[in-house]
Amino acid sequence: MGIKLYYTTVTASRTVKSQQAQVIRILDSKSIQYELIDISVGGELRDEMRNKAGDPTAVPPQLFNEDQYCGNYEMFSDAVEADTVEQFLKLA
């Protein structure tokens, strides 16, 4: 599977929960298949996400096409507004 969404099931942040839910809702509405990777199951997954994103402080949600970094929530949201989600996810 190409698209990977790094997210967390354990967060006190309403913002993170809301952003994750919105990304999932939009991907589902566009029938884009993706793999959910829950970083709360182990610190190594969080570190992997941050290494791949090139940001030691990155927080979910983070989107990748295989191992190629696509962006974070703000970048995804901009792509939704511009109707360029497929390009953002490197699908087009």
Automatic annotation (TrEMBL):
<dbReference type="GO" id="GO:0005829">
    <property type="term" value="C:cytosol"/>
</dbReference>
<keyword id="KW-0007">Acetylation</keyword>
<dbReference type="InterPro" id="IPR006993">
    <property type="entry name" value="Glut_rich_SH3-bd"/>
</dbReference>
<dbReference type="InterPro" id="IPR036249">
    <property type="entry name" value="Thioredoxin-like_sf"/>
</dbReference>
<keyword id="KW-1003">Cell membrane</keyword>
<protein>
    <recommendedName>
        <fullName>SH3 domain-binding glutamic acid-rich-like protein 3</fullName>
    </recommendedName>
</protein>
<keyword id="KW-0963">Cytoplasm</keyword>
<dbReference type="Pfam" id="PF04908">
    <property type="entry name" value="SH3BGR"/>
</dbReference>
<dbReference type="InterPro" id="IPR051033">
    <property type="entry name" value="SH3BGR"/>
</dbReference>
<keyword id="KW-0472">Membrane</keyword>
<comment type="function">
    <text>Could act as a modulator of glutaredoxin biological activity. May play a role in cytoskeleton organization.</text>
</comment>
<keyword id="KW-0325">Glycoprotein</keyword>
<keyword id="KW-0539">Nucleus</keyword>
<dbReference type="GO" id="GO:0005634">
    <property type="term" value="C:nucleus"/>
</dbReference>
<comment type="similarity">
    <text>Belongs to the SH3BGR family.</text>
</comment>
<keyword id="KW-0966">Cell projection</keyword>
<dbReference type="GO" id="GO:0032587">
    <property type="term" value="C:ruffle membrane"/>
</dbReference>
